[in-house]
């Protein structure tokens, strides 16, 4: 009987893994189905119809309980990312905001992309000459839409 219970529990665990961690039809879902059905089948075969029906009812009830418990928000709150994204989408940069030849500094390391400060605007830019350390002087080489290419000031 212990073997049947282990088969059913492993099947339910694989169902939860399939449902929450690996979306789609994968080995976990198929394995969960096979193990659960095999466990219930073995209960019918080894212990008769009455015990088999009780195992089937217990398996269905436990499956519903485990999935409902897993889907509760409080269960997954410990695993959730708790940061808010407060960024906005950059719009095309106009000539009066930034143009080729403007000088500024890097706020973060450009490796090759990072944040820059030019004309009191903080934007993301790409270095055309490899890495540039933070708080280094830079010059704008190209501005196309929201794409800014910079080079270090020597």
Could you explain how this protein is built, in words?
This protein has 154 residues and is an alpha+beta fold. The protein has two domains: 2-76; 103-152, Nucleic acid-binding proteins (OB fold (Dihydrolipoamide Acetyltransferase, E2P), Beta Barrel), CATH 2.40.50.140. The protein is 44% helix and 20% strand. A five-stranded mixed beta barrel has the order 1-2-3-5-4. β4 and β5 (147-152) form a beta hairpin. α1 (2-20) crosses α2.
In short:
This protein has about 150 residues and is α+β, with helices and mostly antiparallel strands.
Reading side by side through the largest sheet, how are the strands ordered? 1-2-3-5-4
Helix fraction?
A: 40-55%
Structural class: alpha+beta
Count every beta strand, where a strand is a DSSP E run of 2 or more residues: 5
Share in β-strands: 15-25%
Question: What is the total number of structural domains?
Answer: 2
Radius of gyration: 29 Å
Q: Pick out the low-confidence regions.
A: none
Number of contiguous helices = 3
Largest sheet: 5 strands, mixed, barrel
Mean pLDDT: 85
Q: Per the principal axes of the C-alpha atoms, what is the gross shape?
A: rod-shaped
Q: What is the string of helix and strand elements? A: HHHEEEEE
Spatial gap, N to C terminus: 78 Å
